[in-house]
Specification:
The protein has one domain. Helices cover about 70% and strands about 0% of the residues. The chain is built from three helices and no strands. It is elongated, with a radius of gyration of 18 Å. The model has no long low-confidence stretch (mean pLDDT about 90).
Amino acid sequence: MTAPIREKFATQVDADVLATIRSLAQSEGRQIQALVDEALSDLIEKRRQGRPRSHVMAAYQASHDHYAELYKKLAE
């Protein structure tokens, strides 16, 4: 299996976002590049589907099932 071809590019991001990404990378023991790859892949998948990812919806549904009464009270 061959490694994917990698290409460099430059961009700018909000300083707070970059600081958070650096912190996440360090705490997870990963490179920033890996987090950027993951984020871009997630964005591409989300845009292709035009709807939330299934695991996101499953988490939402589990939350709704567990807290349905609270949500009803909050809506009143």
